[in-house]
Amino acid sequence: MPTPVQRYYGRWATLYDRVADLPGLRSWRAATAALLDPAAGDTVVEMGCGTGANVPYLRERVGPDGRVVGVDVTREMLDRAGEHSERTGPGIDYVQGDATRPPLRTADAILATFVVGMFADPARVVDRWCDLVGPGGRVALLNFQRSDRALAAPFNVAFEGFVRLSAPGGRFTRSSQAAAFERRVDAAREALVGRTEQRQFETFAGGYLGVLAGTVTA
Ligand SMILES: C[S@@+](CC[C@H](N)C(=O)[O-])C[C@H]1O[C@@H](n2cnc3c(N)ncnc32)[C@H](O)[C@@H]1O
User: Fold this and answer.
1) Between 20 and 30 A from 60 (CA), which of 39, 40, 156, 166?
2) pTM, to two decimals
């Protein structure tokens, strides 16, 4: 029996695939992979990889001796990933599974883009990811956020609309759903801060995207 998340992303996988690779998004995906900063030869796991739009940038970083593993719970999203030559090939694997209970034993680095705001207990999930990469491993989270820049107020309505679209199955008003999403992203970031050092935080897109990356401490 598919979950609401699987039904939602299963239905919209083809459209999502087109939007996920728009030129503006590409530069932010490349910058996020740079902040994750895996070494050549590393194994990077992308949790909630969707249609694999980050995979080319991760593969470029880990090189021919490295490995990129995309984990997603929605079969149709992984099927779209498999249709792109630059997102498939040697050293790239996709696994259908639940990122909150990672179906892998080891990794050097973990990336999650536009995903942690969907989890019921994001702090616990980030904690598990930190355990998985272990001391010295890297974790990066990219998320939409409300912008506090001047003139941003009208666009924060668009932010609320995005949250509604990306969080299937919720029975909330637009504003309360956005607030719940923000609490979950904050909880994920706080958990990552608590487990890491050498952290970097960067924003893109006028402050509407924020990426937090760090190295897991012993
Ligand atoms: C907004 S999309 C982001 C996809 C991709 N990370 C990107 O940047 O384009 C969210 C993705 O997370 C996946 N997802 C949601 N909950 C998940 C879970 N518990 N485990 C694995 N994947 C999950 C959905 O199937 C969907 O593909």
Assistant:
1) 166
2) 0.93
